[in-house]
């Protein structure tokens, strides 16, 4: 079953009221509205079909407020592929009908009932087993897993022919089901964590009540260890390992392969000892060599066992527009528990859910912010540090790495640190102008806050002499008023007056402007701290584009044009 928060997708403002009511039932769900038509949505999309298909492929439960037929036709191409099948529901714009369409095993009927209850209507449930028994036997609640789906389907059809059934083990959620129970029945629903294949007339459901602690030494074959202990691998709730093993990749691979969470706890002495300390409920714990197994009386919620390996992602938002943000960054923001950054950028990365903590700081507190990010990550939180553009270009990635380099704290080094790229302002500006950086170019920050002005002059002089196209970040600010003028004097010693210059201001943001001028015409008062300055090389050309403005490009060749 998918763990993603649902997406509520609407086409027009008429659906917003119903969408908001559904959102009250799923506070973590975001409302996706068609750009230009639904101003008050939490997210805006450009294209309905592509958005719906993308959400589906990401295994996101989808609640669409439009005709069921539109949803079916839109998702049809994906249905023949084997893969994820999240719950998909069509809800009438006015909230008068709730139709579960797909994702029977992902809990679509449960969602349909919940939404219908919120909207005070009856859900359109059509699944026969569900109607007869009041529950989907093949979709046990969290904390339990189904043995075999195909066998389960045969079992349910046998039940539907009118056979009776007995329940072996503890299955509290079946108390409310309308099952034809009989202690002598041939068919049995069996709920326990014993190893071994199911009998011919059994529906096996496994409580996830087993935790395996991996001790010192070589990684064991986990399936084999469980098998030898007489336990079904389907009952494994999570793997637990020592804090000091956090960065051990084979552990992460093993957990990934078994599709269970990997948690960490402080470890000293016997694995059975620290495992017992970490499992906070009645459980039988036994040692297996260096390792240990706990079998709890109740299903175990992995979230209650030890803690997660913290993650720290330094992400680039791109210049601003949502469609220029890379999907990996979007996904990271969606799962973050904590978001740190300069307030303007944190706001740009939002909106956030109520459970996501925002830590906004001033732009100049980079090292402090980097250290704060590690402190949060070592607590097992999923931390995102936000930069505009690319995080590695005059932004937070280097500050975060510097903080880590300076630290001798093993916990900081154990954090799962990722740098996720973004479209940098120079590239976003260049793309709008054409291809001014189409050949060799040099990227510089004109800020002398963190480097001496003399080194900036030297680099400018050499780069200009080398006939590189130039991209200036941080070209000017109130506290650095004269530097740009001086920089241009140096460039002018090497470039002609007609050298093309591109000024991009607030590119990819509301009110963006793009201006093409020449080195001769360029004055510092045309530039501010939200501007990107691109200066051409001796080969950069300009020609008019139909509809106004110019194209600027630097050819791929140098010297003479190749044949
Ligand atoms: N990491 C960022 C750069 C940070 S330095 C990136 O990769 O884009 C800040 C400078 O970047 C600003 O002074 C400005 O020169 C430039 N800049 C950032 N965003 C911009 C935008 N949307 N339009 C134009 N210039 C931008």
Structure description:
With 563 residues, this protein is α/β, with parallel strands linked by helices. It has 17 helices and 28 strands. The two termini are 59 Å apart. Bound molecules: S-adenosyl-L-homocysteine. S-adenosyl-L-homocysteine binds next to helix 15, strand 24 and strand 26.
Q: What is the average per-residue confidence, as pLDDT, rounded to a whole number?
A: 93
Per the CATH scheme, the topology name of the largest domain is Methyltransferase, Cobalt-precorrin-4 Transmethylase, Domain 2
Form type: globular
Q: Which structural class is indicated by helix and strand composition?
A: alpha/beta
Write the layout of secondary structure elements.
Blueprint: E1 7-10, H1 16-25, E2 30-34, E3 43-45, H2 48-57, E4 62-65, H3 68-79, E5 88-91, E6 98-102, H4 108-119, H5 128-133, E7 144-146, H6 149-160, E8 165-169, E9 187-191, E10 202-207, E11 210-214, H7 222-228, E12 236-242, H8 249-258, E13 262-265, H9 271-278, E14 283-288, E15 291-296, E16 311-316, H10 327-335, E17 338-342, H11 343-349, E18 357-361, H12 366-377, E19 382-387, H13 396-406, H14 410-414, E20 416-420, H15 425-433, E21 434-435, E22 441-445, H16 453-465, E23 469-473, H17 483-492, E24 500-505, E25 513-518, E26 531-535, E27 541-544, E28 550-553
Parallel strand pairs: 1-2, 1-4, 2-3, 4-5, 8-9, 9-10, 11-12, 12-13, 16-19, 16-20, 17-18, 17-19, 21-28, 22-23
Antiparallel strand pairs: 5-6, 7-10, 11-15, 14-15, 23-26, 24-25, 24-26, 27-28
Helix pairs in contact: 1-4, 2-3, 12-13, 16-17
């Amino acid at each position: 079953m998918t763990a993603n928060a649902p997406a509520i997708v609407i086409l027009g403002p008429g659906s917003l009221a119903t969408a908001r009511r559904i959102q009250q039932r799923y506070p973590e769900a975001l409302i996706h509205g068609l750009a230009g038509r639904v101003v008050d949505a939490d997210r805006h999309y450009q294209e309905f079909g592509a958005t719906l298909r993308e959400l589906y492929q990401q295994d996101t439960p989808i609640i669409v407020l439009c005709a069921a037929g539109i949803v079916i036709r839109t998702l049809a191409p994906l249905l023949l592929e084997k893969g994820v099948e999240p719950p998909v529901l069509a809800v009438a714009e006015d909230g008068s009908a709730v139709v579960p369409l797909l994702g029977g095993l992902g809990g679509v009927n449960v969602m349909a009932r919940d939404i219908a209850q919120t909207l005070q209507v009856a859900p359109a449930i059509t699944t026969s087993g569900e109607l007869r028994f009041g529950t989907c036997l093949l979709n046990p609640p969290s904390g339990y897993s189904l043995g075999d789906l195909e066998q389960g389907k045969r079992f349910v059809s046998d039940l539907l022919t009118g056979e009776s059934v007995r329940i072996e083990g503890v299955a509290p959620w079946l108390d409310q089901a309308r099952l034809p129970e009989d202690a002598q029945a041939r068919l049995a629903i069996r709920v326990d964590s014993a190893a071994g294949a199911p009998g011919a007339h059994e529906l096996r459901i496994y409580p996830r009540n087993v935790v395996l602690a991996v001790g010192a030494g070589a990684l064991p074959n986990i399936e084999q260890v469980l098998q030898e202990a007489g336990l079904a691998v389907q009952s494994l709730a999570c793997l637990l390992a020592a804090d000091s093993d956090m960065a051990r990749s084979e552990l992460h691979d093993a957990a990934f392969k078994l599709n269970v969470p990997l948690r960490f706890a402080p470890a000293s002495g016997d694995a059975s000892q620290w495992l017992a300390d970490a499992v906070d409920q009645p459980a039988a714990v036994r040692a297996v060599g260096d390792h240990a197994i706990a079998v709890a009386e109740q299903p175990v919620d992995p979230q209650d066992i030890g803690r997660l390996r913290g993650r720290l992602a330094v992400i680039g938002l791109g210049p601003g527009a949502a469609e220029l943000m890379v999907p990996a960054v979007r996904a990271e923001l969606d799962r973050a528990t904590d978001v740190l950054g300069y307030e303007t950028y944190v706001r740009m990365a939002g909106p956030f859910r109520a459970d996501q903590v925002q830590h906004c700081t001033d732009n100049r507190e980079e090292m402090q912010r980097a250290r704060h990010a590690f402190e949060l990550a070592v607590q097992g939180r999923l931390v995102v540090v936000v930069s505009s553009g690319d995080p590695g270009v005059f932004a937070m990635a280097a500050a975060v790495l510097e903080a880590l380099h300076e630290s001798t704290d093993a916990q900081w080094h154990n954090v799962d640190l990722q740098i996720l790229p973004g479209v940098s302002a120079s590239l976003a500006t260049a793309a709008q102008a054409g291809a001014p950086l189409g050949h060799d170019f040099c990227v510089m920050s004109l800020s002398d806050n963190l480097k001496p002005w003399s080194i900036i002059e030297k680099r400018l002089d050499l780069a200009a002499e080398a006939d590189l196209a130039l991209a200036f970040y941080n070209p000017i600010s109130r506290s650095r008023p004269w530097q740009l003028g001086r920089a241009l004097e140096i460039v002018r010693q090497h470039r002609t007056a007609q050298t093309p210059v591109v000024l991009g201001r607030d590119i990819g943001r509301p009110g963006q402007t793009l201006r093409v001028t020449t080195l001769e015409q360029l004055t510092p008062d045309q530039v501010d701290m939200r501007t990107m300055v691109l200066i051409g090389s001796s080969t950069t050309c300009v020609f008019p584009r139909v509809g106004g403005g110019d194209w600027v490009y630097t050819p791929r060749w140098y010297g003479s044009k190749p044949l």
